[in-house]
Amino acid sequence: MKIIDLKRAISKLEKEHGNIDQCDINWRYNADSHVHRVNYLEEDLFDAETNNKLDSVVFMSHPFQEGDDYCTVEEGKAVWSCWDDISEQLHWENPDKIYFDSDEKVNNYLKYKNEKTS
What we know:
Elements: H1 3-17, E1 26-27, E2 36-46, E3 54-61, E4 69-74, E5 77-82, H2 85-93, H3 103-117
Antiparallel strand pairs: 1-2, 2-3, 4-5
């Protein structure tokens, strides 16, 4: 999607629904996934030639909403937590951390990791 497409979509929504300035911006992986709130917009890539022309922007968000239960693997064990401000801070300190939202998923991951190291 290009910025112009986003502007057109927002313009169309405003024509249909009036002022939408207070609407949240959310995203999801697919029609069946959880909704995630976009927390902010960030510069992403600049052109390779001059490195000063912005080529893309990225919507940034957190993997969970405040109050959601989630699981991480710490020292080979599943650790469940509730997403809060501290979780958000820890996420940005280590954005590649793997998160799980079910016992089944984390147990499958742990089984895979144990088989891989055996």
